[in-house]
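As a next step, the fold was encoded as tokens, giving this record:
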Amino acid sequence: MFVRIEGLDEQMSTFVRLLSEASVDDDTVSTIFLNVTRRWLFAGRTHRSNRLNLSDEENDPLEVLSNAKLSEAMAREFKDKFATHPKHIMELIKQLLEEYVERCKSLSKRQENLKEAKYASIGDIVHHEDYDFGHVLQSKPQPNGMDLNSEDLVSFSLSLLNTLVNSSDLQKGPETLAVASSILPFLRYLAEDHPNGPKSSTITNSAANLVVIITSSLGNPSLTAEDPVGVFRTTLNSSLSNLTSPDPPSRAWALSGLRTIITNPASSTIIDVPFVTHLILSASVTDPDSYVYTAAVPVLVALATISLHLVTRILIDAFLDTDEKSLSLETENGSVSGLEFRLRIGEALNGIVLGNEVWADKEATPRTYDIHMISEATLTLASRRGQRPKTISARKEAAKKEVQEKEEGEKAWGGPIPAFYPEEKETRRQQEERESLERVVKGWEDTAEQEDVRLRTSALSILGLILERRLEMVQQTIVDTAVEIMLNILVLEVEPEKSILRRAATLVSMGLLKGMDRAFEERSEGKVGLETGKLDEVERVMKWVHNEDLDDMVRGHAESVLEGLATWRMKTWFGLRAEGALEAPRFELEGRLRGLTVSPQLCDEGQMQVKPGIEEIE
């Protein structure tokens, strides 16, 4: 089994290469892609039945993986052909929307049955295993009964349909018009507001937007719909086109206009979140001008207020870069490396975690799931030791090319190449500082199979911010894992070039202390935190770091953590909060105490309080 899986990528690449070299016609390639993708998405589609099925031969995991790999390889190789002949892609989108609409209607009917006292509604009390496009739901369910994977798939399908319809290369023939007309009923259903409908607002807005776009762009007068946001749509199209302008001020202006449309409630409904997010990542985040890519971060944060789950999922995939796709940026855009691109993605995630408007919502469960996704991504990146074979081979190839160019230059020159612009003469101290900095930078990059130290530092910084600002949404397992990673980094990675990593690790513990202190002040402590034994271990490691670490800043951070830990312990032991009141147990004594001239006072929540007093004595 494992041998077959290891050779799967090579087999799929060979098959796709043969299709390309054989010059197979576009219609045949599109049909193969449609069938493979349909088998992948609808694999193991099962309806509920009272019969017990002990056989699982129809759900071969290797077959599902093969279909997924082949679909991905064909989409990457023949994307231009699929864009010019979108009929089969639109048919696939139609089937996905049809499945989703049927599921929405089923859940809506179940909600209605639960409101009626009938024997038939008893079966809807217990939720059976739901099968979404044939796969058992594994993602975090939403309160409305629909899972996030279903909504993600439908959202990306609507985004793909929007891209196809707005494409200038779209062939508006009779077949395309017929498929689009057959999709419209499902879009209209998704655009409507149903009382018990499980749809998200993102899907509703995207579907309503597509109804207007399809009816106007395909040129069918019988389907024409009124466009109440036509003015905003014109501004949006202008901003999107200017994102790729050769003039940097125009690109910055386009981002500003795009942010204005996103933050305006009247126009935010026309935003195609997946499409705009991918466009900003490819056009603006990779921009060589700093004032352009820094302007892209607030736009991504604003997009997260519309659809947090979609935006964070796209950013996390780019930040982790499991497939090492960021390496292609160095060849497509020589001014921005893959490392710089991922660090900029980290800045965007940092802005999302900081944005209070992103988290001040409505639906608590999806928000908790999203912060859990970001936390897991930062933990994975901060602790990952491999595997990045493409990065290693690229480093070796670049080093080999540099040596080869140097040898060719010396051979052509007839000896060592002289410095035409000699540098100023350095003192011995300056030379030592320069060599030290060069060793540190080289240590950041030459990490063998490990991630770059700067990326791990960025992940730790985001993690510390999550523990400080969003601790109430974090699970205890995330806190425990974060503390273990932080302690391991401080104890094991003591090289001089890892000093920035240790600084970020100490700030993770400081962020956790601040988050716990905030929870204590808001009287919500006890949900997550550190046990006494783990606190003692943190204190012991911080004392060792404060005494033994070679970096002054790391020692200073460790000292601050020790002081914060001592302060937090005093506050929790004696019940001291920011209002300055001493909360001590009073054995439930209320009212005036007999024989004494004191009266215990109650705070707003019914707890005993003793106000500090000053008495002068001789």
